[in-house]
Amino acid sequence: MRTPLIVDVDTGIDDSLALVYLLASPDADILGIVSTAGNVPAAQVARNNLAWLDVCDAPDLEVALGAATPLSIPLRTTEDTHGPEGVGYAVLPDSPRSLSTRTGVDLWIDTVRARPGEVTGLVTGPLTTLALAVREDPELPRLLQRLVVMGGAFHHPGNTTPTTEWNVSVDPEAAKEVFDAFSGLPAGRRPVVCGLDVTETVEMHPEHVRLLAEAAGSAPAEVISPDDLLTVRSHAGNPVIRHLSDAIRFYMDFHRTHDQGFLAHMHDPFAAAVALGRVPVTVRPATIDVELAGTLTRGMTVADWVGHWSREPNADIVVGTDPVAFFEELIGRVGRYARGRSRPD
Ligand code: RIB
Ligand code: CA
């Protein structure tokens, strides 16, 4: 069974790996890719998406431009986390592919309406474009088969402020509008929310990169060391491995600079594997709302697990997973996929 997917990203380093993982997944039927501003501006997100399709010699998939600014506040990007172009140290050739003539909002609405009840939405960036699509078509939550979101933090510190996670922090109003709009869905159709509580247990280490290159049959061995000079770049013979390694290395440098170790939290590929049902997860229903007025806590995702607010749950929050199983899945699929794409770019 293939999963029809709309993938809404703010490509970024982990979004990049999520995209390659989905391209590598025969059970992922990517109906469209929406480029929403977040890690980097929307136009750069779109450029990155098109460039990764080229690197992977992927079929002609529709890439649309999503929201360029949050609903009601100025855009804030994070090139210090994801690199000046959002793909770390990777230098991706410009793609000759064209952007869709449709907007990201129209891609969401048209695609879901064309296949009511069948499409899974995966959002690994701010929820701005989806919020705009729901404003235009309030039926969208009921027409989607499922929504999977990478965002929020529940019993876990934020990564952007002490209480907020990046995707929600960029556009808290959009997150609130989406969680409100997806209220009232029956169990089994509620959005699945992958917050930092779990995604920060999904730690990619240099050994994972070495194993990924090995699975791709790439040579020489891809060894990323914390002792490398910051100027070191991959010499992997396989272009998919080379570009992914240069992207991931930047993310590892960033995490080390922020005292989290020489590793990379792979938030978005994890959410992608959840969307395909390819990783074991434990979920717990809750009612999620977003703090918009807090002086210190604006953008905080608040989960009511026990009904304090007398509101029905509007989300299934992922509270547990198996990171080892996840990396076996990721390395297996992306390694096999990259092996078949060894032509020099
Ligand atoms: O907080 C992590 C999330 O923010 C990830 O999706 C990362 O790509 C950034 O968008
Ligand atoms: Ca992202």
Automatic annotation (TrEMBL):
MF annotations from Gene Ontology: purine nucleosidase activity
One of the record's GO cellular component terms: cytosol
Signal peptide residues on this chain, from the entry's feature table: none
Inosine/uridine-preferring nucleoside hydrolase domain: residues covered: 5-328
Single GO BP term: purine nucleoside catabolic process
Keywords on record: Glycosidase, Hydrolase
Keyword Oxidoreductase recorded: no
Chain segments annotated as coiled-coil in the UniProt record: none
Record-given protein name: Purine nucleosidase
Lineage, highest ranks first: Bacteria, Bacillati, Actinomycetota, Actinomycetes, Mycobacteriales
